[in-house]
Design goal:
By secondary structure, the chain is of the alpha/beta class. The chain folds into two domains: 279 residues, TIM Barrel; 78 residues, DNA polymerase beta, N-terminal domain-like (DNA polymerase, domain 1), CATH 1.10.150.110. It is 46% helix and 12% strand. It is globular.
Length: 374
């Protein structure tokens, strides 16, 4: 039995210090509901500080808090910030009754904000008319959360109340047919359960078949000492007893200290496989950064920054190059936040001008120069 509790928050817009570079590319986020009826057992939201119901999974899934003034708040707050990509909406079953996500899309359309929609639900298709209009005016991306093509007992253990994977791929095909950039968020990949070649290739092949353009993947994270971690490991123990010691070992370092994510070497074994399968099926292993809504003078900055963000993301999985992560990320932040085109700076002062940009040294100045020449 699901209950709805209406309330009126004083604020709805979350503003990042920087964009979520290399991942979802969002600067803002705003969602109309707290709690989720889908009940994914690996979801960080209900198991961390982001949840209004810490330590109470059942309540998080059965008591949905409805921000009844969400559209009005969103309009008021978006008017005060520069246009940039916003993750917005939530098409869980509550949306069928309250239609708040649709009303929030109407606000984004009116104010010219591009949107990213991250969904497990085919319900998002009911608002395809609005999504198309937003895409024509600014830009729209729809990412479906999918970790397997199989609608079997194992998926139901981890995603007990979600729409089938088949239904999500079907919705993706409809979104793609409408000319909207779409793909999947394969997050998280569950170690030893969904990280085999058969599943990885199957998901990527199905994404291609449905018209998807990208696969954004990452491994499972379990916050140290969190209720989520305890609950998830209990599920592993109860359903996959042979995997339990492997999970315990995977989420601790060689000294036995708890880790937030799997040992770094884990992703170095899985990540390259995903990249190879993406290449095989002509799929991007990342979400393409939306830039068409930016003024022409700043597009080059955003494009070069995007390349730097993606390089930083690659280096995150290489322990030998951790210093490069921050070097590329800081340079990307600086390029993103310039108020004039980096090509204009280069034409005026060449490498000397580029080196005066905060966070850009000699090596990265040459990297920017190479990008400008190509």
């Amino acid at each position: 039995m699901v209950e709805y509790e209406k309330y009126k928050p004083k604020k709805i817009l979350n503003i990042g210090k920087h964009i979520d570079g290399g991942w979802f590319w969002t600067k803002y986020s705003a969602h109309p509901y707290i709690g989720c009826q889908y009940g994914c057992q690996y979801c960080y939201v209900w198991g961390t500080k982001y949840s209004s119901y810490p330590n109470n999974y059942q309540k998080f899934c059965s008591l949905i808090k409805v921000k009844e003034n969400a559209p009005e708040l969103l309009k008021k707050e978006l008017k005060k910030v520069p246009v940039d990509l916003i993750a917005v909406g939530d098409w869980q079953p509550a949306e069928q009754e309250f239609h708040l996500s649709r009303k929030m899309l109407e606000v984004c359309l009116e104010l010219g904000f591009p949107v990213l929609l991250l969904e497990k639900s085919p319900l998002v298709v009911q608002d395809l008319d609005l999504i198309k209009k937003i895409n024509e005016k600014s830009e729209a991306i729809v990412a479906f959360s999918i970790i397997t093509t199989k609608d079997d007992r194992i998926r139901e253990i981890f995603e007990p109340n979600t729409p089938s994977a088949k239904a999500r791929f079907s919705a993706m095909a409809e979104i793609a047919k409408a000319g909207i950039t779409t793909g999947i968020s394969m997050m998280p990949i569950l170690p030893y359960i969904y990280d085999n070649d058969e599943n990885l290739e199957g998901v990527i092949a199905a994404t291609k078949k449905a018209g998807g353009k990208f696969v954004l993947a990452s491994s499972l994270t379990l916050e140290q000492g969190s209720f989520l971690k305890k609950s998830f490991l209990e599920i592993i123990k109860n359903n996959f007893v042979d995997l339990y010691p492997k999970y315990v070992n995977l989420f601790q370092d060689s000294q036995g200290k708890e880790l937030y994510g799997p040992r770094p070497e884990y992703w170095r074994s899985v990540g390259p496989k995903i990249a190879l399968f993406c290449t095989k099926y002509g799929i991007m292993p990342y979400i393409p950064r939306p830039v068409k809504y930016w003024p022409k003078s700043l597009k080059i900055n955003k494009e070069i920054a995007a390349d730097f963000y993606l390089k930083a993301r690659e280096f995150e999985y290489d322990l030998k190059n951790r210093y490069k992560v921050w070097a590329y990320r800081k340079a990307a932040w600086a390029l993103d936040e310039l108020d004039r085109g980096v090509d204009e700076i280069y034409k005026k002062s060449w490498l000397t001008g580029l080196q005066k940009i905060e966070g850009v040294g000699n090596r990265l100045a040459h990297a920017i120069e190479n990008e400008l020449k190509h």
